[in-house]
Specification:
heterodimer, A: alpha/beta, Rossmann fold, 3 domains, 6-stranded mixed sheet, 24 strands, B: mainly alpha, two-stranded antiparallel sheet, 14 helices, globular
Chain lengths: 515, 372
């Protein structure tokens, strides 16, 4: 990897400039007078919490939205972008976090989609397409087989295809939206190398992220957004994670979770050779075994899509089990319904808070009783007790610091962090023996992350067995007492936290066996 | 300090409810207005005087006590049908089968009414109503169970079951339950015994009062009971319902049955309060009007009542309009259609009146075809 420390690119010509970009959505000023400058061959990191306005700004630069006010200059020309097509003509290519690829088509077919190479008679010249993809991959060091089918490729390579797609359309300004969210640490490092190769050949990159470490490693310059405003432009050499976090959040943030040594007791959860199918009836959990004891946090680390979602759904009764056994204390719950498992004092913070965790049109108060509404005092003889539900709402909103105008507010109108706090409040305000937390802090603001982490540790200290599933290595390493690395549907290795180094866990997550 | 907060909260809450109520009724209200305006344009084009036509329409619907009674009679089965569709909507189900459930309820109530003799009215009439409702519930069970156990979408199955119901009731009225009075060649059941007839209290049909009660009960079940919480949770987010330990399958079947019960009651009220027997062709379209009414009432049980009254009034007044203003009664159907159009395409109305913000009672017409 290149180790350029000085901001050399500042002298390079400006390829893209945004002046005073403002965008108003109903109720939200998403971008407020944002200025941005991108030089040729530069990697500009765009840092900010969810809701800081990063995505809006990028959508404006890539032609998806038109700004209410402000100007965009590309290569010295004042432009008005009406569509992504307008942007790509001027060399601005966007790589979305969620890939826009057709899974059953080959690499080359995906690359040329919408800009097909046609030979006489209207036929697609696939040989020519393959040749051009090879040429591009050689030129920029993006190794790929043009004839491979997308769905057979690992995520890292699929991302490469997205980048090639942009380059094929002669983009020399690339916008990468949270590109490392789906990658292993090793894959991320490969991506950073590719980014440097690209910039060495004159491509300019805007790199959107909320991961502080990455920014410091890869960026030439960092723009921090907060509340729709650009609150600062800094250089990696003069920044630390703490200083960036402070800029991002607007106050000092404690990045390290403060916790004592675990005092594990008896085993609460025991899983033996669990097997679970996904929607397409493919076996994605393949003989998973683990156990969690009271008073400890077992973190399941792994890249997304290795069967974690299906595993947690099976554990909580939402998905049928096709093989193996699950025991909660002495009770076998392999084939139990969700209500039964929940009534064994199993709290569940689901991965997808909008799909499983909340009923968006319901009020905060109604959401806070989602799995206890049938208990006294919330229900009495099959009739709801509105007063008890409201009182419970008021208490929990206060106790868990949920920022909401009132308990009657719809959950759907809260911010991501506050939505998650509603779920955490609901799950932790009842007796808990086992806490299952799947991606509990994904996509939420640093302040809420801090709060939720402390809550999880407090549960552990109170003797709860905690099963944390996370794709964020930082989260795993700061919370876990033991780390179980999940790859391809099973636990490849369980390490005590003392032996779980970033490198070792990263390698295990990528599937490399160790002896 | 405590009282201060409380009173403040009360004020806030009242303001919130008022705002919510306005959000709820503003779109239907404007839609009705637009429907009347466009209807007036049509009347002008067809050479009639809009004002005198509307005057006659109003006269025919509310002008005399008898007219009011006719309006209420027309509105009664519409309220039941609207409640049936609205209730299923709350569980995320699109019950197009209210028509079929209503027919089954109507024919079974007729059977109870004409086959059992010697019961006092206080028992006979409610019994026929109840059994009619239960028959509708049973008929609603079928699509509910099909959805749960086979994944068949209720829109398809209820449409099919409407045809099945039409044929079953035709067969019963022309076969085993046919009116064998000498000289009768029409397919219809015998007249029900007077003890099974729902009387009128002055100009107010008993059925109408029952319909109002049904609306209150439906609202109470939905918003005040534990079951209602489960139903609405399933309707708004079935994944979250599953996560919360609610047995979605049970709720889907139960909701379809309650919906069918309401529709069946509607049919029974028609038989016992108005027709006095079951005769094929007399109940046509009411179940489908229920969809219109449920949408117009924003799937709220209390919204269903004014919506049904509006439709009932237009039906009741249309013949008067035809006689005095010479306007084809179909114009009321056009007005109804235009109103529904603006309710369904509420974004148009919202743009017109610049209403923003979230819509809590957003009506989702269908939740996809994957049968979960």
């Amino acid at each position: 990897m290149s180790d350029r420390l000085s901001p050399i690119a500042d002298d390079a010509p400006i390829v893209l400039e945004a002046k005073g970009i403002t965008k108003q959505f109903p109720g939200v000023l998403a971008n407020d007078q944002v200025d941005l400058v991108l030089h040729r061959g530069e990697i500009l990191a765009m840092l900010g919490e969810n809701g800081a306005g990063k995505s809006t700004l990028m959508s404006i630069l890539s032609g998806l939205y038109t700004p209410d006010a402000g100007e965009i200059w590309i290569k010295g020309e004042h432009v008005t972008l009406h569509s992504p097509g307008d942007a790509i003509i001027r060399g601005v290519g966007m790589v979305y976090q969620h890939f826009q690829l057709v899974p059953v088509m080959t690499v080359a077919e995906n690359v040329i989609l919408g800009a097909e190479v046609v030979k006489a008679g209207g036929y697609i010249d696939i040989r020519e397409a393959n040749r051009r993809v090879r040429e591009l991959s050689k030129q920029y060091g993006l190794e790929i087989d043009p004839t491979a089918v997308i769905e057979d490729l690992p995520v890292g390579l699929q991302q490469r295809v997205e980048i090639i797609k942009a380059l094929y359309r002669q983009a020399d300004i690339l916008i990468l939206d949270e590109p490392t969210a789906v990658l292993t640490p090793q894959e991320s490092n490969e991506l950073f190398q590719i980014m440097h190769q690209l910039t060495a050949q004159g491509v300019s990159i805007i790199f959107i992220t909320h991961k502080l470490k990455e920014v410091l490693t890869v960026a030439d310059r960092i723009v921090v957004l907060r509340g729709g405003k650009a609150v600062g432009t800094v250089y990696p050499a003069e920044s630390t994670e703490a200083s960036l976090a402070e800029l991002m959040v607007g106050r000092k943030v404690i990045l390290q979770v403060d916790k004592k040594r675990a005092q594990p007791g008896k085993t609460v959860l025991k899983i033996e050779n669990l097997e679970v199918l996904d929607e397409r009836k493919h076996k994605v959990v393949k003989g998973l075994s683990l156990d969690v004891r009271e008073g400890e946090i077992l973190a399941v680390a792994g890249v997304q899509g290795n069967g974690q979602r299906e595993f947690v759904e099976a554990l909580t009764g939402l998905r049928p089990v096709v093989g193996g056994h699950i025991f909660i204390e002495d009770e076998e719950t392999t084939h139990s319904i969700p209500r039964k498992i929940s009534e064994l004092d199993v709290a569940h913070i689901p991965e997808d808070r909008e799909k499983h965790g909340l009923v968006m049109p319901y009020s905060v108060a109604d959401n806070l009783v989602l799995n206890r509404y049938f208990h006294e005092p919330f229900s009495h003889r099959a009739v709801l007790n509105r007063d008890a539900i409201a009182e419970n709402g008021r208490n929990l909103v206060k106790e868990f610091d949920v920022r909401t105008p009132s308990i009657e507010t719809h959950a759907g109108s809260l911010s991501g962090g506050n939505k998650q706090k509603v779920i955490v409040a609901r799950e932790l305000s009842r007796p808990v023996k086992l806490l299952v937390a799947n991606q509990p802090t994904r996509g939420i603001d640093v302040g809420s992350i801090e709060f939720i982490h402390n809550q999880i540790v407090a549960q552990r200290d109170a003797g709860v067995a905690v099963l944390l599933v996370s794709a964020e290595l930082d989260e795993v390493l700061s919370l876990a007492d033991r780390v179980a690395v999940m790859f391809d549907g099973h636990i490849v290795k369980t390490l005590p936290i003392e032996e779980a180094t970033r490198e070792r866990v990263g390698l295990l997550m990528a599937g490399s066996e160790e002896e | 300090m405590a009282t201060d907060t409380t009173s403040n909260e009360t004020v806030n809450r009242t303001a919130r409810y008022l705002r919510k109520a306005w959000q709820g009724i503003s779109v239907p209200l404007v839609a009705v207005l637009l429907g009347l305006i466009i209807g007036a344009l049509l009347l002008l084009v067809s050479g009639a005087q809009p004002l005198s036509a509307y005057g006659a329409l109003f006269e025919g619907a509310f002008g005399t006590p008898a007219a009011i009674q006719r309006t209420l009679e027309k509105a009664t089965p519409l309220i039941f049908a609207g409640l049936a569709v609205a209730f299923a909507f709350k569980a995320g189900l699109f019950n197009i089968g209210a028509q079929g459930q209503l027919l089954i309820g109507a024919v079974v109530a007729a059977y109870v009414g004409f086959s059992i003799q010697g019961l006092p009215a206080i028992i006979h009439a409610p019994l026929a109503l109840l059994i009619g409702g239960l028959a509708g519930a049973l008929y609603g069970f079928i699509p509910g169970a099909l959805k749960t156990y086979t994944g068949a979408h209720e829109v398809i199955t209820t449409i099919m079951l409407n045809y099945v119901a039409i044929n079953i009731t035709d067969y019963l009225a022309d076969g085993p339950w046919k009116d064998m009075t000498p000289g009768n060649i029409v397919a219809r059941t015998p007249k029900i015994f007077p003890s099974a007839v729902l009387p009128s209290l002055g100009n107010i049909p008993t059925g109408f009062i029952l319909a109002l009660l049904a609306a209150v009960v439906a609202w109470w079940i939905l918003y005040r009971t534990t079951l209602g919480y489960e139903i609405r949770t399933v309707g708004l987010n079935s994944s979250a319902a599953q996560y919360a330990g609610i047995r979605v399958a049970k709720i889907v079947i139960l909701s379809m049955m309650i919906s069918g019960f309401l529709a069946g009651m509607g049919g029974a009220v028609e038989t016992q309060g108005i027709n006095g027997r079951f005769q094929p062709g007399f109940n046509t379209g009411i179940g489908f009007d229920g969809i219109t009414i449920a949408l117009l009432g924003k799937t709220n049980p209390f919204g269903v009542i004014p919506a049904a009254l509006l439709l009932g009034a237009m039906r009741a007044g249309s013949s008067k309009m035809q006689f005095s203003a010479g306007v084809a009664p179909e114009i009321t159907d056009v007005i109804t259609a235009v109103i529904l159009f603006f309710v369904a395409a509420d974004i148009i109305v919202k743009t017109l009146i610049r209403q923003r913000g979230t819509d809590d009672d957003k009506v989702t017409l269908s939740t996809g075809w994957s049968g979960h």
